[in-house]
Every structure is written in C-alpha cells, then in structure tokens.
Amino acid sequence: MDRLVFLTQRWPKPGFAVLLVALSAAFAAWGAHFSLGQRALAADASPPLSYVGSETCGACHQDAYKAWVGSHHQLAMAHADEKNVIGDFNDARFEHFGVKSRFYKRDGKFFVETDGTDGKLAEYEIKYTFGLYPLQQYLIPFPDGRVQALSIAWDSRPKEKGGQRWFPLYPNEPIGAADPLHWTKLNQNWNFMCAECHSTGVRKNYDAAKNTFATTWKEISVGCETCHGQGSAHVAWAHAHEGWKDFDKADSKGLIVNFDERENVGWTHDAATGNVTRKNSPPTLRKEVETCGLCHARRAQISEDWVPGHWLSDTHFVSPLSHGLYFADGQMEDEVYNYGSFKQSLMFANGVTCSDCHDSHSSKLRLPGDGVCLQCHTAAKYETVAHRRHDGVDPPVGCPACHMPARTYMVVDVRHDHSFRIPRPDQSVALATLNACTACHADKSPQWAADRIAEWHGPDRKGFQKFGPAFHAAWMGQADAERLLAAVVSDKQTSGFARSGALPELAPYLTDANVRLAQQSLADPDPMVRIGALDMLGPAPAEAVWPIAASALGDPVLGVRVRAADLLAALPVSRQPEADRAAFQRAADEFVTAQKLNADRPEARLTLGSFYARQGRAAEAEAEYRAALRLAPEFAPAAVNLADLYRQTGREAEGVGVLKEALARSPKDAGLHYALGLARVRQKQLPAALSELREAAALAPDNPHNAYVYAVALDSAGQPGAAMRTLADALAKHPENREILTALVQISQKANDLSAALFYAEKLQAIAPEDADLRSYVERLRQAAKAAGQ
C-alpha cells in the first residue's frame, strides 16, 4: 500500500487547502507540441489500443521479462495462495492495544480474525497479497466492492534484522473502528489509495449513487504495460515485421512511448572535478522520470487516461514542495517517495535519468555498492580519505549514507532521499532541518557537525538546493519571506519543482511585482510551475486575474486547465470575456469530471462543492458538502464549508448546528472552534464566541491568526488587557507577524499608551522599511508620544 499513500495522516484541518484532487497552471507552447502529438498517437491508433499482458511481451523480450519476474513490480500484488503468501498463517496470534488477532488457513484459503467495522472480532478471508519486502500486506474484499488493506503486516526481513513477525503499521496508538485510519475505513481503501500503482490498467468504477465499487485491472501486478502502455499496436507491428529486418529505424514500432533518453547521450569525464558532463542538453520533458513518477510520486489522480511519457500533471495533481511533506531545504519529511526529491536534484538538472542507476525491469541497482555512483564520479576523486573522512569505519561508509540520507516509513521500510544533496549541518543550525552527519552521530549537535565540515572543506558551503532559507522564512512567518521566495521563483537555475512550491507561498504577498512573476511563470515549460503560479493567484478576485490566467484554460496539460477553471470559477458567465467563455466551460467541465472521478473521497466532494459555491450554485454545493460528511462524518472541512454556505444563504442557525454536531465528533479540532466562534460573533453571543475562539487559539498555538482573532474579540468585549496579553504571547512565538504587530499598535493607541504603540510600530517598520505610508505613520506616532510625554 505504500506506493500510493496520499492520506496516511489524520484528516486535514479547516483553513488548509484540501485540494486532494484539485489542480492548476498555464500556457507553454513548447509543451503543447509534444503533449498533443503524443496524444494523437494514442488517439489515432487503429484498431483501438488494448492490453496484451506481460507474457506476450516476454515472448520476444525474454531478457527483460526474466529480469521482471520475481521483482518488486511483478509481486506488487498477487492472489493469496501458497506461492505468494509469506506471512505466518499457522494459527499465529498477535495482540495490539487489546485487540487479539489470529492468522490461519482453512481449505487452502487464508484468513484473519480481527476487529471489524463494529470493533468486534470477526473472520475475514484474505484474497490478495500486497508487496513483498521489507513487508507484505494483505487485502480483504467486502461485498460492496471495497477492498481494504489490513493494518497488521508481515515483516519479511530476516529474523536477525528484526523480521519474521506480525507488526502493526500504527504501533504507538490504538486505532479503533471509529478511527479514519482503521483498516476498514476510507484511508485504508485499496480501490482509491493503492490500486493504480500496484496493478496494470486499473479502472476504479465507483458508483456514487450506490456507494459501491466495481474496480477492474488488466493485469494484477505492475506489468510491462504499466510503463510502456497498451501493447496491441506494438504486437501488430512485430507480426508485420517478422524478424525485424524490414523496418525503418525511425518507425515508432507501434510503441506509445520510446524510452530513448539514454541513447546517443555523450558524457565527458572532467579529471579536475572527478565528475561527468553531459554533451547534449537534457530535454525539458523527461519521459522516463514522468513515467516512473506515476507511482513514485506523492500525487492524486484526476484522470484515468494516463499515457506513459507525458507530463504526470496531465493526469495527476502532484504535491509540490510544501510544509509537512518536505523539510524547508527539500529533504523528504512525510511519505513523498522519489519523484519530487529527484526533480530538485543537480543530477536531474544535469540529465541523469532513473535507469542510469536502476534497471527498469528488475528494479535493482545497475551495479552493487557505490558502483552505481562511480559510473559518473571517479574513484580517484571520491573514494579517498580526503573526501569520505571516515577511514577505517566498519562497515565502510558509502555514498548514500551522506548524500542519500534515509528515513523509515511504514515502521520497517527504509527509503533513501533522492535529492542527492551535499550534507549541510550548517542549515540544520539555521533552518532546523535534518542532516546526514547527526543522523549517525546522534550524540553530537548540528553545530558540531557544521564545524567539522568547515574544517574539512572550508567555510563556504556549496550545494545545488539553495532555496531552504526561503521556505523556512515563509513557514516561520519571517519578515524576509517575500523577498527570498521571489528570488527563488526568479532563479531559472532553481529546479522547477522547488519553484512550483515557492509560488503558492507568495500568495499572501500579491504585489504588482509578484503578480508579474506569476504571469511569467505561466509560460514556464514545466506544468508544475504553471500550476504553482495559478495557486499563487488564488486569493485575488477572479475578475482581476482573468486577463493573466485565462490563457491557462487552453493549456495542453489537464492539471493546468482544471486549476485555471477552479481559480476563475467565481466570475459569472455574463462578465466573462466572450472570447474566453467556451474555453472556460470546457475546462470547467474537465474540473467537474476530475472531482467526480474521486467521488468516493470526501476531499473531492468538498472541492466540487466549493467550486459550485463560488459559481452561486448553492443547492449543488450543499449536496456535495453533505455527501462528503456522509462518506466521513468526522471530516471537519466539509462541516466548516457547509456552515459557511448556510451563513451566505441566511441560514446561520443551521450552520451553527452543523458545527456543533461536528464538534461532538471532533472536540479538539481548532478549525471547528474557530468557525463556531465567528458564527457566535455574528449572532452577537460574545461570551460564547470568546469561549470558542479561546479554544481555537489554544488548540492551534502555531497559527497566529487564531490568536489575532481571539485578541480582537477580547478587545471588542472590553478586555483590552487580556487582548494585549494574548497578542504578546503570540508575538513571542511569531516575532515578525505583521497581523499581530498591527493589532498591538492599534490596541495600544486606543488605550492611549503611545509609547507601547510606537514600540510595536517601529518593529513593523523594521520588517517593512520600504513602506512609505508606515514610515509616515511611525513619525506621526513618535511626535504624538513626545507631545504626550511618553
């Protein structure tokens, strides 16, 4: 199940973008030619393309087929039988937080007795295996077509490494039947969470009216056609060219994509650096990387019409570099897989591709140990004491230990970061990021490690990923965030993946200069950058951004078109430029279709409901929000949006009821308390409002806006002292937050404490020295304080 885990955490909280299946970004003519040309190949094939199966491929491609058999891809999913099941089903017992599970066989079938949908022990037949090493999971079908992944897995590592045991995927907490992470619930559902990446030619076939699935696949595991696409045209070509003697080498051979990026590529070794340089520039669209990204990326599906070799954004929303998924310097934090990490690396920028290191069919490294690195980085330069600095260490320290630090997911699955970075413990000191040095030297500090690196390699730090300070500043609310982020976006040497993450971080700073950056980014060849530009423009009124973003409605990449439609949805048709109306309607239809593909998910229903709400289609929005809550009653963002829809339509009391019902299920949800607090303010129930807003601020101490709103409410209730104390506490945690400082200035001035007002105003001025209006205000305040003797 680990190949497509998009929601292994708790539900996202209100106030965050819940765009699981929502999307984005603009026009690039270069991309149009390739994308449309490739799609034409698939669309114009006659007869229609169909799957032929890996065994058919193996008849001719015998070496590739033999390498694939027994690989992680070939064993990604299989029928549960004696050959494929490796767990202990000999009446094995396992207990976790009081739940006593039993694994056993009967009549050649495999069963588990464990807690079911009602929390009671019941028997379930295991029908499929999932994965092989270092763990194997087991899948259980239900009558409504759902297939669920059991959250007790088999540790397939050797016993001496801690394996050969049953273990829980959530070892530190009880996961009861009411929990969204329980194995019978949405977030362990194979049909959505896992199927696309563990089988070939999957169609989810969800029936929203019946809330049932009829999911199908063409091949149960990850076969040849997962990566190469439907093989019927290629087989027909092979039959027509028996012996392969009478064909033009320029012939496509009936292939949907030709993975030729390693062919005719020249690399020159530089004796001085010990590295290689690619003679010819790498293409902008890297067919192999995009194809591998189908499963090795943190993403969500928006279309089932994926074509290998196309931009992944054409059929999927790819999570950019963002808080909670990555560390500020781009190292992986959550389960993000390899696509985003690799695309921010210098190796990717210089033209290295996946199969330079990995055999595509066996999934193994091309050479053992450090051999795969030494293909490009000469041993004379890098296999030296001067470089490694770990002479005599047993076992020897290899390249990945320093340049591909590992994190463990799913309890036992160790994964290496593919951003291939130079160790930067100095950034750990400045940005609170991880570093490879103290990962091993756990008893030492990052400063100790930074000092050792400086001794060895000098004080000037190098590294391709230079964007860490910008993301750290944005996530910490620092005053220089805007400047640093704009510099990242402007630097075309920075990876498109990093720029695509920096653009949305500029959304709070929609200055003329930054809007121009967004407009320029809408012409970037990387669709993720174009999507990021549209995300940046999100807070602006649709009418204001229409002249900038309307061209994205016709972008060759689906993800860009649907994000543009979402961004521009609030502008009524009567006010849309006539020349753009047809393009908007086409993109809007695609947006709706993308959400309906995932109608089994509350996030998609929420996203579609919000789209309808912005278009003034209140009844349809209400239906989607209600559907989201039926799918997941604990999904707080749907309750917040539904309550807000009721507010907009004059049904405030009903909205309060929705929020109270949601809070009964999720009493510790800060977003629900915040929304209810605002509703009580509108109802002029100030004591009740203060109680809810206080709780929202307490439950989300890292959210300065909650503290700001609570303080404003306190001041409105005649409690300026309490308001100032609340703001002062928030300022201690967020010393450069403009909203907090502005409130401190205003409340101090209202209380005639001009010296305090001046103190906070000068802090604001230090943050925004270029603000002429603020400079004038501070001077007037200084004169007033002086006149008052303060």
Describe this structure in words.
- By secondary structure, the chain is of the alpha+beta class.
- The protein has 36 helices and 18 strands.
- Strand 4 and strand 5 (121-126) form a beta hairpin.
- It starts with 28 loop residues before the first helix and ends with a helix.
- Residues 1-45 have low confidence and may be disordered.
Mean of pLDDT: 91
Number of E strands: 18
- Total helices: the number is 36
Please describe the biggest sheet, giving its number of strands, its sense, and whether it closes into a barrel. Answer: 6 strands, antiparallel
By helix and strand content, what is the structural category?
alpha+beta
- Report the end-to-end length measured between terminal Cα atoms: 65 Å
Helix percent band: 40-55%
Strand content: 5-15%
Shape: globular
Oligomer: single chain
Give Rg in angstroms.
Answer: 28 Å
Low-confidence stretches: 1-45
What does the secondary structure layout of this molecule look like, with pairings?
Layout: H1 29-44, H2 54-60, H3 62-68, E1 77-79, E2 92-96, E3 99-106, E4 109-115, E5 121-126, E6 128-130, E7 135-141, E8 147-149, E9 152-155, E10 165-168, H4 190-193, H5 195-198, E11 206-207, E12 212-213, H6 224-228, H7 232-240, E13 267-270, E14 275-278, H8 287-293, E15 299-301, E16 316-318, H9 339-343, H10 346-349, H11 354-357, H12 379-382, H13 385-388, H14 399-403, E17 406-409, E18 413-416, H15 425-431, H16 436-440, H17 446-457, H18 468-476, H19 481-490, H20 496-505, H21 512-521, H22 527-536, H23 542-549, H24 558-568, H25 581-597, H26 602-614, H27 618-631, H28 636-648, H29 652-665, H30 670-682, H31 686-699, H32 704-716, H33 720-733, H34 738-750, H35 754-767, H36 772-787
